[in-house]
Structures are given as C-alpha cells and as structure tokens.
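Technical note accompanying the year-one report. For the benefit of new consortium partners, we illustrate the data format agreed upon in the data management plan: each record pairs a sequence with a structure-token string. No post-processing was applied to the example shown here.
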Amino acid sequence: MTVSGVGVSPGIGHGPVYVLTVSVPEPPEGATYQGEADQEKARARAALERVAGDLEARGVRAGGEAKDVLAAQALMARDPGLAIGVDALIERGTAAARAVWESFGKYRDLLVAAGGYMGERAADLDDIRDRTIAVLTGHPLPGVPTVAAEPYVLVARDLAPADTVLLTKDVVAAFVTEEGGPTSHTAILARAMGVPAVVAARGATALRPGVRVLVDGGAGTVTVEPSEERVAEARRVSQARERALEGAAGPGRTADGHPVPLLANIGGPRDVKTAVDSGAEGVGLYRTEFLFLDRTKPPSHEEQRDAYRAVLEAFPHGKVVVRTLDAGADKPLAFLRSPTAEPNPALGQRGLRLFRAFPDVMNAQLQALADAAEGMADRLQVMAPMVSTVEEAAWFVHECATRGLASAGVMIEVPAAALRSKDLAGVVDFFSIGTNDLAQYAFAADRQVGALTQLQDPWQPALLDLVAAAVGDHGVPCGVCGEAAADPALACVLVGLGVATLSMSAPALPAVRAGLARHSLAQCRTAAAAARGQATAAGARNAARARLPALAELGL
C-alpha cells in the first residue's frame, strides 16, 4: 500500500508511524461565565500572552529559522484584531474559551479563503487557539515524543511549528501531513532540518500507529510495510545521492561546459546564509512580499532599502533578481486591497495590477531598490509579477527607468505572456517563468487545492509547451524561478528547452548542480523533446529520465 502526496523536502525516511492527534475539545456552544466581563477578558488576554511567551521561548531554544517562524506565530497570538474579537464575544456573555474558539474560527476562515501562503498559516492559528483554550480550561495539549528508541515518522493532519521545532533528525525520520503545501511551516522547517517530508497526503492519519513506513520526500510517496529489500534499495539510492551531492561544486554547467547559473529563491536577508552555503551563484527570485506580510502599513523606506542592500552585498559576483510586491489573491495585505470585492481574487487585482492601483506603495519600493543598489546597480535586476500584456510590461520598464533601475524584466506566469513572449521581448531585458502560477492558470487548477495536485504537476506536456513558447527565438534571456527547477531531471529538460538560468530553494541546488554536470546539452535537448512528445505528465517524466541515465546512477 502506498499513500501519495506532495514531496516538499527530499530524502528517504524509514521508521514506525507516530500519529499526532489534536485532543483539545471544542468548548461547548453557548458556554457562559460567572463574574465580571472585565475579569473574563483579562483571563483570555493572559492566556494569549502566556501562549505567545511560550512560543517565543521555544523559538529561542530551537534557534535558526525556527526562531523566526515561532516569533511570527507569537505575533499572531498578540494580534490586536483577534483580541478585540474575543473581547466583543465576552461582552455578550460568551465564556473566554468559547470566545477564543469562535473569534479564531472567523479569522481562520479568512485565511483559508485567501489560500496560498496565507491559507497555509491556518494550522498555526489552530495551534494558537488550542494552546490558549488548554490554558483557559486546564486541558493538556498533545505532545510529540522528543526521545525515541528509533527515529519515527511523524504523521498528522497538519503540524504547527511548536510541535516540531525541538525535534532533531535523531528523533524524527520524516514528516507526513494530510494538509499543507510547499510554503507551509511543515515544509519550511523540514527543509531546514534536512528531514524528508510529504504533505497533502490524504488518508495518512488513518495509518496504524507503529506500522513501519518508507517516506520518499522527493517522490512524495509513503510506502506502508515495505520489504527489507525495498528499504535497503532506498537507502542505497539515498547514500549514492549524498555522495553525488558532496562532489557537486562550482558554477552550474552541463557536462560539455554549457553554463547554467544556479540561483536561489529567497524571502529576505535571513535566507542568504543558506543560499551561499548551498552554492547559489546569485538570487533568481527575491520575494519582497515577505517584508510586507503581517503588517498594518508598509515597511519604511529605510527598512526596505537595508533589506535589499544586504542581499546585494552578499553576492558580489552574482545577479540579484528582485520581484516587486506580489500582493493580492493568496497574499492579501491589510493596507493594499482591491477597492471592490472580487468573486475570484486569483483572477482579480493582484501582482502588477494591484501595484499600479497603489502608486505610493509602488513608488516607495522602486525608490528603495534604487537607493539600495547605489554602487551596485550592475547586480540588480527588477521584475514585475503577473504581467499579461506588452502595455503592462512597457509601463513597468518605464517606471523602473525613471528611477535609474537599468535592468527590468517580467514574470511569465500567465499563458498570454508565454504565448506572446516575442512581443514582450521588444520592451524588457529578461523573463523569469513562475511555473507554479503558470500551471495554475493554464489548467484552471488552484495551486492550493490538494485534489488538483495532478494538474499542478510541472511535467505536464502542455506546461512544457508554454515554457518553450516563452523561451522562443527572440534572444531575450529567460530563466525559471518556480520550484519546477528544483527537480534535477526537469532542470535538465528546462535547459534543453533553452532556459538560461534556474532558481530554486537553496537546499535543492546541490542535486540540480550534480544532475546537470553529468549530462551534455545535447542530452538535455533530447530529453526535452522526448518529454514534449508525450501525452501525460508521467509519460513525460519517464521519457525524459530514460534519456538522462546518470540521474538514476546518482540516486536523483
């Protein structure tokens, strides 16, 4: 039996299943309190603060990226809007525990409706809610074993950061969740820990506690009760992969010397060290929206300038490609909203469209970028998200040029832009393909809906056709910054299609570097043609890998 999901942290994990179940019960509907409302409100606020303090303390103990993740969760516990909602319910006679449940439920619904990065914060909110209710009612929270006879596979509906930050590779062999996505905290922390992880694995919590499973964090599979031979083979492949990665160094290039700069996707200065340590030759996607999230007003000019400059200084010999604020849809901002309600935000005012609607925010970001690049302008490239037409592209290039930003490009995330890349090439300096959104719009399949994962498969031949159309023969360099570039086989195919640079999460860089180094440009082109000649994603993957023999030898 095999349970399938989405692999978000590569590697092989094997061990007994430990199923984490949330056991904090929902407070009774209609529950009331005795005494004064002010006293009940004080109880609720004290509980929220206790939870926030505990989360911060756990983050300090864990350190690294986990510290930042839990600090952000503590901010959610202290959110004034949530406290106001709890107070309002208590004023109407609702008991503190029930008020927390209902108030958090409303906010959770908003996050889930937003989807994407914000939707994947719902598990964090649930965790804060449950911890707060446990404090108010004296109910114990479920715990995660931090000591075990052998590493176990932690299985849950979803995992909150506080459940995992104090774990180590010696304790947990892999993470498997029924919910979540590539940007969930489960995925972020698993990659930081170097632990295999599979998310969106429906039915995983039905696994029998203690049953042994084999988790493949690259393929996204959970094999139940694998044979000893299967486990031994998986470990052999994993060891071969580790040896290949240890030997991968230097600039990205094919076996015959064709250069393919390998870049990192980052969210800010805190991601720089991991990118540098992984051998990134620059930054292919600086997601500036992470500076703006969880705020009631935009970051100051100085904060933006310093955050951009820190990254430019970290790559003295490489390019840094900055994506301007990509807000709206799955990344709603309190101070940057469409003036009218939208029935489908993903098809509404988002990306460049929303940027144009708020010129003050746009002007501030572009000016901060220009100031950050003083003395380093040759390293900075700026690109706009969600561009659909040549008019939009020309407008953005003009706005950049007026502020001295010499290199301006656009994201290819909309099929219209891919199909008319030759027109766009006449006005921009470079392209960068966002394969996640391009697949979402090409297949009319929300990238956050687990049931539609098959349509989000980057091996879909139609998506490869759109990549080929975007590359075209117009002469403008075209990179890929979607996570499709993190698959060593698909990276070779993308190079075969003519993609000039590949950008991905930093931990994926060594594997892609190793895969490219073992195949010639001709082999990459042959694999790309074979993949496009298939009718299904599985057929495309198999056809390409058959023409990239060294990948299997390397365990990639």
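Partners are asked to follow this layout when depositing records. The mean pLDDT is 87.
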